[in-house]
Specification:
The chain is α/β, with parallel strands linked by helices and 372 residues long. The protein folds into 2 domains: 161 residues, Rossmann fold (3-Layer(aba) Sandwich); 160 residues, Rossmann fold (3-Layer(aba) Sandwich). It contains 11 helices and 11 strands. The strands form 3 sheets. A 5-stranded parallel β-sheet has the order 7-6-5-8-11. Strand 6, helix 8 and strand 7 form a beta-alpha-beta unit. Helix 6 packs across helix 7 and helix 6 crosses helix 10. The longest helix has 19 residues. Phosphoric acid mono(formamide)ester binds next to helix 3.
């Protein structure tokens, strides 16, 4: 397909979508500029993601995650979207399982960069309802789009589609498997909150105690968050996992924790550990087979919980009773920033995977250097 060149200048009438915290709120929506203003984005590192399928958090390097976050910060801060960088590109969003945020933030990300979307919001509208295989559906998608963004209840679904798919597949959640782009959104929120995370290491006194209220072995967002956390292990003093399960990990995660040699503990006593935690990641929706259930819901937080004054809370949402709305307007609330930033980190990922970084090069370097 012939590619439309980017415009030299954005149209004068261009307006940025505005993101504001709730009225009267102390919720954190950190300034994105600090992530890239004295530290220009490396397009060489991001170029490594060209034409790559994105299947699991562990496939990323530290540099790829930090450069994606820096590019996302550029996209959040600067007016790049009027340059139509995804013009001519088509993505299929194929969701065989319910979603509020992931599908709409991916579609928003694409549409705001002037790409186009074929949206399958309900898998029962595809041939799968008549017994068609994902391998066959994938063969068809090769001809219709430039990438596929798929969510499915089955952990094996990405593998099945990849049997015939020859365009990049982005895993938007597969059963109890992984949710790698959620992990990118999580770490983008954390890097904006604490830009020092983008540097390779910090002093011992600056290391964080990371708390997870959830079960990585059954919660894909929690699992991907934890696996991506291993890239930032030089910034982490200890990981505390608070779960209903005595063994909340599963064999593959245990192996990754062992290989990383990271200090971790498992507990079922939230009150004992809460006052020590700097970052609290929570979730309560677990996948068992192809259905989901509420798990770890007795670990509830509200504005009266004994949370460290400086601590932040992340939650991939949807929330049930475990994260009380009384926390929404407090400075512990990083979860709205996490959800808002998802559009920009997904834009950064799509620009890298769909090989549309080149035309942005001058703009990114100019803006980065101008502010350094
Ligand atoms: N975070 C997340 O995956 O949300 P959705 O299920 O609404 O997509």
């Amino acid at each position: 397909m012939k590619e439309t060149p980017l415009r030299d200048d954005p149209p004068e009438e261009a307006e940025r979508p505005s993101i504001k915290p709730p009225e009267g709120s102390e919720a954190i929506l950190p300034e994105p500029g600090t992530l890239f203003e004295s530290n220009p984005v490396s397009l060489d590192v991001l170029g490594e993601l060209k034409n790559q399928s994105i299947l699991e958090a562990g496939q990323f390097t530290f540099d790829q995650v930090t450069e994606l976050c820096k590019l996302a910060a550029v996209l959040e801060k600067l007016e790049i979207w009027p340059y139509h960088p995804l013009d001519g590109k088509i993505a299929v969003t194929a969701f065989f399982e319910a979603s509020t945020r992931t599908r709409t933030s991916f579609e928003s990300a694409i549409l705001r960069l002037d790409g186009k979307v074929i949206s399958i919001a309900d898998g029962s509208t595809t041939g799968q309802a008549k017994g068609e295989s994902l391998a066959d559906i994938g063969e068809m998608f090769n001809a219709y789009a430039d990438c596929v963004i798929m969510r499915h209840t089955e952990t094996a679904a990405p593998e099945e589609m990849l049997q015939n798919l020859r365009i990049p597949l982005i895993n938007a959640g597969n059963g109890s498997g992984e949710h790698p782009t959620q992990a990118l959104a999580d770490w983008f929120a954390l890097l904006k909150w604490k830009p020092a995370l983008a540097a390779p290491c910090v002093n011992d006194s600056e290391k964080m105690n990371l708390g997870i209220l959830g079960t990585p072995g059954s919660m894909r967002a929690v699992k991907s968050f934890l696996l991506m956390a291993l890239l930032f292990q030089d910034h982490i003093r200890k990981v505390t996992v608070i779960s209903e399960m005595a063994d909340p990990f599963g064999e593959d995660v245990i192996q990754c924790l062992t290989d990383a040699n990271i200090d971790y503990e498992v507990s079922n006593d939230v009150r004992e550990h809460l006052p020590d935690l700097d970052v609290i990641y929570m979730n309560s929706i677990a996948f068992l087979g192809d259905s989901y259930k509420n798990m770890d819901s007795r670990f509830k937080l509200n504005s009266e919980s004994p949370i460290k004054e400086s601590a932040v809370i992340l939650h991939p949402m949807a929330r049930l009773g475990e994260l009380d709305t009384s926390l929404d307007k407090t400075p512990h609330n990083l979860y709205f920033s996490q959800a808002h930033g998802a559009v920009f980190i997904r834009q950064a990922l799509l620009l890298a995977v769909l090989d549309r970084l080149g035309p942005l090069e001058n703009m990114i370097n100019l803006e980065s250097n101008k502010n350094s």
